[in-house]
Amino acid sequence: MVITYHKLECVKIQFGDTVLVFNPPSKKSSEQSVRFSGDVVLSSIKHEDFYGVDTIPPKNGSVFVIDGPGEYEVKGVFVKGFPSKSNYDKKDLLNTIYTVKLEDMNICFLGALNEKELSTAFLEDLEDINVLFVPIGGDGVLDPVEAYKLAVKLAPNVIIPVHYDGDKDKMLSTFLKEEGNTDIKPIDKFTIKKKEIEQMEGEIVVLASS
């Protein structure tokens, strides 16, 4: 599994010939649209900065779009979406938290979440998390301190922060201070296998945005 980060909350995950894209920006967003194709597009919130589901060309035939709570299965990927809240852009919006199982690994994508406490239904259904994507930008989503506390509570093997403006952003430095390690350097991509990730415990991975 190979993970890359493309600003704000746009994340690309490739495993084999299959590509998942989370929260790509739309053409109306101030963020530049991404320039790669995909098989499955997941949008956690219907806002122009995260709902560019029509900007991702199909990689293999057609794109399967997931944009709300429910259970989904496509191309050997199992997805569950759970409703939560966001106040992004000062609007009360539905945010969908996604759990994704692929290659025998569990991924949790919190989206534009700004709730410090997660629903009982979500927590009761949750399996051990291998990779957690957590927003840290504040201003309608979790701030760095809230994000770190929630991430630790969920006890993933790997924590990947998203929703910040580059590696010089004070939101990122604040998040890393909570961990007590401000020397973590951004990497271009994170490549991982199940047997490797099981040896990690709450490790923070910072991805350079492209």
Write a structural description.
The strands form 2 sheets. A 7-stranded mixed β-sheet has the order 6-7-8-9-10-11-13, with helices on one face. A 6-stranded mixed β-sheet has the order 5-4-3-2-1-12, with no helix packed on it. Helix content is 15%, strand content 30%. It has one domain: Ribonuclease Z/Hydroxyacylglutathione hydrolase-like (Metallo-beta-lactamase, Chain A, 4-Layer Sandwich), CATH 3.60.15. The protein starts with a strand and ends in a 6-residue tail after the last strand. The chain is built from 4 helices and 13 strands. The chain is an alpha/beta fold and 210 residues long. It holds the Pfam family Lactamase_B_3. This is Zn-dependent hydrolase. InterPro entries: RibonucZ/Hydroxyglut_hydro (IPR036866).
What's the arrangement of secondary structure elements?
Layout: E1 2-5, E2 11-15, E3 18-22, E4 40-42, E5 64-66, E6 70-74, E7 77-86, E8 93-102, E9 105-109, H1 120-125, E10 131-135, H2 144-154, E11 158-162, H3 170-179, E12 190-191, H4 194-197, E13 203-204
Parallel strand pairs: 3-4, 4-5, 9-10, 10-11, 11-13
Antiparallel strand pairs: 1-2, 1-12, 2-3, 6-7, 7-8, 8-9
Helix pairs in contact: 2-3
